[in-house]
Fold:
Amino acid sequence: MKRVQNKLLMAAAITALLAGCDGGGVSIEPETVDNSVDNSITNPGGDSSDENPCATIESSSVQGEYSDSNCYYTADFVSAANPLTEDLYLAALDNYGAHIFSGSLFVGESYSSDSDLTAAGISEGGDGVKLEIQAGATIAFKDNSAFMVVNRGSQVFARGTETSPITFTSETDVLGTVGPEDVSQWGDGYKWLWCNQ
Structure:
């Protein structure tokens, strides 16, 4: 019960912080949307050991590694030096599985100026990379040096519901090894999410 309460509290905190991004490409849409069969971006798959339900970067064919109901993503998948440059879909995984990132999750590239954005084909906010997170999905980070960045021009579609919230947490929480007094398990407490305006 305490884990569920902690997840709901974290979801509320994420909602409040995302709202503070002043419309910087982050969109939280509370309506229920069943996108579990959307295979246009990644391979959501099932829970069979033969199938890998982890997200895939289509252009490089890099896919997360599936183990014990969780999807693990290395810096080869996404990192500060290797940001998402194409749309990505993170599905809710069976058996309370989580998408666990070893480093930070950078959505879109960072541009220094409006002219750099225009040269990249991003004429207004939202033209860039889109990350879609399905209701019920859990996103976890390996340690407190990892966080999420939504760069200018990019968007995150987080469509959680009351019964299927989207959870951001730490790998230790997912694996059940977090201690009752452990804090700042990911995102270094205060800088875990920011919007690059």
User: Anything to note?
Assistant: DSSP finds three helices and 14 strands in the chain. Helices lie at 2-19, 114-119, 171-175.
